[in-house]
Design a protein that fits this description.
This protein is about 30% helix and about 20% strand. It contains 6 helices and 11 strands. The strands form 3 sheets. The chain has a 7-stranded mixed sheet with strand order 5-2-1-6-7-11-10, sandwiched between helices. The longest helix is centred in the last third of the chain and has 14 residues.
């Protein structure tokens, strides 16, 4: 279990993209990582776009970057809400400063944009937010998965297998 002793924050909010949250969470847990779901409130039930529920383990304010090795930001409509929380932006910024793996897929790029960490970075996302990503200073490419240092980005659910593999590989290196 190559990810044993690794701890990961998986952000969760209303209308997350079900597969973009659960596929990475389950794959990382299979490899031994402890993945905590972190939302606005602890023990809060959030429902994905397609009805799959997720209950948060902790609130944003209850976690510290010092206690975790990486962070995952799922897509869906949740990122538009998640980026409104200063605590979320601070978590992402601190992960970036510590050069810990940050995973973002689909619309999750909105959170990284609001955290102001994309300038000069090569990334991908759903083509629907390509302009947002480039306006934030990122170099956007249309590829299934892009790794730029400690940031792993992906486009959409069909890209989940290579996205999670790259994220897990990066996490295992650290």
């Amino acid at each position: 279990m190559r990810l044993q002793n690794k701890k990961v924050i998986a952000l969760v909010g209303p209308e997350f993209e079900d597969l973009e949250l659960w596929y990475p969470v389950l794959r990382l847990r299979e490899e031994g990582a402890k993945v905590d779901l972190v939302g606005d409130k602890a023990k809060e039930k959030y429902v994905g776009k397609y009805g799959v529920p997720a209950e948060s383990d902790f609130a944003f304010s209850e976690v510290s970057v010092d206690d975790y090795d990486a962070i995952l930001v799922p897509g869906g409509w949740a990122p538009d809400k998640l980026r409104r929380y200063p605590e979320v932006l601070e978590l992402v910024r601190k992960m970036d400063e510590a050069e810990k793996p940050i995973g973002q897929i689909c619309h999750a790029g909105w959170v990284l944009i609001s955290a102001d960490i994309l300038h000069g970075r090569k990334v991908t996302s759903t083509p629907g937010i390509k302009d947002d990503m480039t306006n934030a200073g990122a170099k956007w490419v249309d590829e299934a998965v892009v790794v730029d240092g400690h940031i792993v980005s992906s486009r959409r659910p069909p890209d989940l297998p290579p996205y999670v593999k790259e994220f897990a590989d990066l996490l295992a290196e650290g």
